[in-house]
Design goal:
With about 260 residues, the protein is mostly helical. The chain has one domain (about 5-260). The chain is built from 8 helices and 2 strands; from the N terminus they run H-H-H-E-E-H-H-H-H-H. It has helices at about 5-30, 40-55, 70-105, 125-140, 145-155, 165-210, 215-235, 235-260, and strands at about 115, 120-125. The protein has a two-stranded antiparallel ribbon with strand order 1-2. A hairpin with a 4-residue loop joins strand 1 and strand 2 (about 120-125). The chain starts with 5 loop residues before the first helix and ends with a helix.
Length: about 260
């Protein structure tokens, strides 16, 4: 019969609970897993299963006796690290949502919105199409395995100890919002420029021939031309995906290195 003393039991619980807080926070925020479509019990079960697999790979953990403020500090640190890593991955997916919204507003489809069941909000049709295409590419290129690798490697870069994340890492999380808007603009820039030229042409036609009813043909032509530009732009979508994914992984790496 296996006999465990109280100190050994506390040590085992520490080795399980502290990684669970980080992995659980990551699973609650990361896309595709931390969405409203996935029940909380499934996310919790995924976090527990991944924690059991990660436990033998962890470096030696510090030992603390009893309940102390240090334990609360460690728990808060693990939650913050997990939320920060999941938020960075969420920002990566929102780049494509933002790009679709910029293109839709220029081509006149900004009013055509549908409900996003994953996030519980209304988004434009083109943004939802970009998001689904990005998720399919992400899964087909083993992006889910990359997420597991990131959270496992984070324990080696940011070990569990009584400390805090560095200010540079927190500042990188804040700056990721600016990177999201810049990348979304670059993603939508070809279509936005093409539609801007079309609007300039309609403005010149209106000035040259005021008797023409440009508004009757301008709206459907702009919409059809915007759909054509979007279709043409899909040929380079994989290249855009690789560029944005590489930049996102670099930001995640700098977040982990800067947190030491």
């Amino acid at each position: 019969m296996l006999a465990l003393s109280i100190p050994e039991l506390v040590e085992w619980m520490n080795r399980f609970l502290w990684p669970l807080f980080r992995i659980g926070a990551f699973a609650m925020v990361v896309p595709m897993i931390g969405t409203q479509l996935v029940p909380v019990r499934i996310r919790l079960g995924f976090a527990v299963a991944l924690t059991l697999l990660v436990m033998p790979l962890l470096p030696p953990l510090p030992s603390y006796e009893g309940l102390s403020p240090v334990l609360a500090l460690i728990v808060a640190q693990q939650l913050l690290i997990g939320f920060a890593l999941g938020f960075m991955v969420q920002v990566f997916f929102q780049v494509f949502v933002l790009g679709g919204q910029l293109v839709s507003s220029q081509m006149g489809l900004g009013f055509a919105s549908i409900s996003d069941p994953a996030n519980g909000v209304s988004v434009v049709v083109l943004s939802q199409f970009y998001l689904m295409l990005t998720m399919l590419l992400f899964l087909s290129l083993n992006g889910h395995l990359v997420l597991v690798t990131i959270i496992v490697d984070s324990f080696g870069v940011l070990p569990i100890e009584a400390g805090w994340i560095g200010a540079p890492s927190l500042w990188r999380v804040v700056l990721s919002g600016g990177w999201m808007f810049a990348s979304g603009l670059l993603l939508a820039l070809p279509a936005v420029i093409a539609l801007l030229v079309v609007n300039f042409a309609f403005g010149i036609m209106t000035k040259a021939a005021p008797q023409l009813n440009i508004f009757a043909i301008g709206f459907p032509f702009t919409m059809l031309f915007g759909l054509f530009i979007t279709w043409v732009g899909l040929s380079d979508f994989i290249g855009q995906y690789h560029r944005i994914a590489a930049a996102a992984l670099e930001m995640v790496g700098s977040l982990l290195v800067g947190g030491r």
